[in-house]
Amino acid sequence: MARRGLLKAALLACLLVLCSGRVPTVIQQPSTTIYNSTLAKTLVEYAAAIYTADLTQLFTWTCDRCGDLIEGFEMMDIIVDVENCLEAYVGFASDINAVVVVFRGTQENSIQNWIEDLLWKQLDLDYPGMPEAMVHRGFYSAYHNTTIRDGMVSGIQKTRKLHGDVPIMVTGHSMGAAMASFCALDLVVNFGLDDVKLMTFGQPRVGNAAFASYFKRYLPHAIRVTNANDIVPHLPPYFSFFPQKTYHHFPREVWVHDVGLGSLVYTVEQICDDSGEDPACSRCL
C-alpha cells in the first residue's frame, strides 16, 4: 500500500513539472484535407487564453493571449465550477465562423485536478449503441457530473441564437482536452447536433478500444495534436497485451516534433494513421 502511494506521488510530481498549464506551439506546415495547420495555430491560442488568471480580462477579451490570431472573439459565457476547480468558455469566432468551446486544463496549483487525472479506473459509458465502451472515470465525471456541461450547452444555445446554426469547434489542452472530447461526443450523440468538430492539444487517453472505435464513427475528423515528448498523451498507459481493457486513443493524432541533426533541425507536423495508436508517432518514444 505504501509503495502504491509513493508511485502515485511520484507520478503526480512528474506531471506537475512537465504539464503545468503549458500549451504546445504549432509550427505551420501545408494544410491537408485531414489536418488544417492554420486552424490548429488559431485554436491553440484559444486553448492558451483560458489559462488567464484574471477572469475580467478573459471575459472582455483583453488578456495577453487574446490578440493577434484570435482578436475580435465574441465571448458569450465563462463557466466556472469552483468546487471542482474547472473552467470553460463559449463564444463566437468570426474568422472561422464558428462557436468555439474551450476547456481549461489542469492548473499547476490545483491538486484536486491532478487527483482526478490519476483516477485511472474505467467505467461503462451509458450512451446508446455503445456496448463495451469504457471511459476514464475522472475525466468523464469532470465533464458530465459538474456544472460545466449545463453551462456549456447554455452558452452554445445563446451563441447560435445570435449567429445561426454555425459549426461548433471544441478544443482544450491536457485535462481540458479530455473534457473537450467528451463534450464533442455528447453534442453529437445526446443532443443530435451536426457539424461538431474537435481539435485538442496534449490530450490523455480517455477510454478503451471500443470507445475509440465508436468515437471515430461519430467524430471521424477529430484531431489530437501531440507535442514532441509530452508525457500526457501517454497517460493512462497503453498495454498492448490487454487489447480490450487497456486505454486506447481515438484517431487522429498529429505529432509535432523536431527532425534532423545538428543545425539541420526543423519542426514537422506528422499526420498519423487512423488507428489512434500509431507506433510511428508519439508512441514510438
Automatic annotation (TrEMBL):
SUPFAM superfamilies reported in the protein's UniProt record: alpha/beta-Hydrolases
Gene3D superfamilies assigned to the protein according to its UniProt record, in alphabetical order: alpha/beta hydrolase
Domain Fungal lipase-type: 100-237
Signal peptide: 1-21
Transmembrane segments annotated in the record for this chain: none
Any one GO biological process: lipid metabolic process
Listed InterPro entries: AB_hydrolase_fold, Fungal_lipase-type, Sec_MonoDiacylglyc_Lipase
Keyword terms: Signal
Protein name stated in the entry: Fungal lipase-type domain-containing protein
Source organism of the structure: Aegilops tauschii subsp. strangulata
